[in-house]
Design a protein that fits this description.
The protein has nine helices and 17 strands. By secondary structure, the chain is α/β, with parallel strands linked by helices. The protein folds into two domains: 187 residues, FAD/NAD(P)-binding domain, CATH 3.50.50; 150 residues, D-Amino Acid Oxidase, Chain A, domain 2 (2-Layer Sandwich), CATH 3.30.9. Strands 1, 2, 6, 7, 8, 9, 16 and 17 form an eight-stranded mixed β-sheet that branches. Strands 10, 12, 13, 14 and 15 form a five-stranded antiparallel β-sheet that branches. Strands 4-5-3-11 form a four-stranded mixed β-sheet. Helix 1 packs parallel to helix 5, helix 1 crosses helix 8 and helix 2 packs across helix 8. Bound molecules: flavin-adenine dinucleotide. The site of flavin-adenine dinucleotide has 40 residues, from helix 1, strand 10, strand 15 and helix 8.
Length: 385
């Protein structure tokens, strides 16, 4: 794609999280002139604050997610600290039955899962206690969110892509059915194609172009313990928690309950709350042999949620040169595949490796105006829990 002019780029991507950076990297490695514009620092939102899980067997992008992660360090030229496989521990029979769905979903798509008894779990996960059983998935895995954000950014720049940080996008210029410019707090840029990949802010930005992207934000929290002896497989879930053991040995875990928030009321600040106590209690139950470990850090981030929990990756009919990508809470793991899908949509209007029909905006055509209240997704101040 050609360049839109000296003060612009052929493709402007709004949002320097993993979705926007991966899309920018895929475009740049094709030789497209791309500029990623980020309101703050790259990865400072959910992309740098998540659990690092890469196991989305419900997604149409799952096969590509699984194909790309094991080769991503080589493709990018920088480390993501990706580690393959996932163990899920069931503390009781009810959890064991519930978690079986991942085995079935994986098997349908050609991936193996071993069923583990309590003894096998304790051999693989020395921090576990009395458990019912569990699963060893020969798919999925986990990576370091900060390393991954940085790796995408460096790789994008290696291919000639550009990143502008600390430049919130304020508005757009249109001509006819096309977006021709992006206005930021610092200056304006011309573009031939616009990608909005701004996480929870995607809805408000797309609305400026007359495109409705229904989203509700939730605050989600993570806690991190002091480093412990390294487990053989660092990706261990269970008891309503997701997370991983870092390569330095810390247990970094999160997972419900989430708190619904109006993004504009938060001032952009995502701080930890008493919810971290719930995570710590459930982590102690999951890993009783690590109950002595002190929590040394915690943080929160805002998750973007669509009404049906599935991502939006789509090119609306109007404006004709706009692509939207917001990942509805599964964006870290899917980022290598989501970025490639965005590249395909930008370049040819259709995704060449996966069926994205379930991720289109058309599915929200009949959405009730009060869908947030109907689903009970209300901030506490508005009557939610
Ligand atoms: C605690 C927590 C745990 C999670 N765990 C996992 C997990 O284990 N696995 C997984 O796959 N996913 C997980 N997620 C979800 C995942 O982090 C997100 O789905 C993913 O990071 C979304 O990436 P993104 O780039 O689309 O959006 P974001 O990371 O939200 O990035 C969007 C960027 O757009 C920028 N932006 C917004 N408005 C503007 C503007 N006007 N101008 C310019 N830039 C703008 C923001 O500053 C931000 O940097 C978790 C999320 C949280 C919070």
């Amino acid at each position: 794609m050609s360049r839109a002019g000296s003060e612009g780029a052929a493709v402007i991507v709004v949002g320097g999280g993993v979705t926007g950076l991966s899309a920018g990297w895929w475009l740049a490695r094709d030789g497209t002139d791309v500029l990623v514009i980020e309101a703050g620092a790259i990865g400072s939102a959910a992309s740098g604050r998540n659990g690092g899980g890469c196991s989305h067997h419900h997604s149409p992008l799952f096969l590509e997610e699984q194909r790309l992660w094991p080769m991503l360090d080589e493709l990018l030229g920088y480390p993501t600290e990706f580690r393959p496989n996932r163990i899920r521990i069931a503390l009781d029979e009810r959890q064991f039955r519930l978690y079986r769905r991942a085995l079935e979903n994986g098997a349908r798509q050609g991936y193996r899962t071993d069923v583990l008894d309590a003894k096998q779990i304790r051999a693989l996960v020395p921090f576990a206690g009395e458990v019912y059983g569990g699963y060893f998935h020969h798919f999925g895995g986990h990576a370091n969110p900060h390393r991954t954000v940085q790796a995408y950014a460096w790789a994008l720049q290696d291919h000639g892509g550009r990143i502008l940080q600390h430049a919130p996008v304020l508005g757009f210029d249109t001509r006819g059915n096309r977006v021709v410019g992006v206005r930021t707090s610092r200056s304006a840029f011309a573009c031939d194609h616009l990608v909005i990949a701004a996480g929870p802010a995607t809805g408000a930005l797309a609305a400026q172009l007359g495109v409705s992207v229904p989203l509700m934000s939730a605050r989600a929290e993570m806690i991190v313990t002091e480093p412990l002896a390294l487990m053989q497989t660092g990706g261990v879930d269970g008891n309503g928690l997701y997370g991983r053991q870092t390569l330095r040995g810390n247990l970094a875990y999160g997972g419900g309950p989430h708190e619904w928030v109006e993004l504009q009321d938060t001032g952009g600040r995502a701080y930890s709350t008493v919810l971290q106590g719930s995570i710590a209690r459930r982590l102690r139950a999951l890993f009783p042999q690590a109950a002595h470990a002190r929590v040394i850090r915690s943080w929160a981030g805002f998750i973007e949620n669509t009404p049906d929990g599935r991502p939006v990756i789509d090119r609306p009919a109007s404006p004709g040169n706009l692509t939207i990508a917001t990942l509805s809470s599964v964006g870290f793991g899917l980022s290598p595949a989501a970025g490639r899908a965005v590249r395909d949509l930008v370049v040819s209007g259709t995704c060449g490796f996966a069926d994205l029909s379930t991720l289109g905006l058309g599915r929200f055509a009949g959405l009730e105006p009060g869908w947030r209240a109907l689903q009970g997704w209300l901030p506490a101040a508005a009557g939610g829990e």
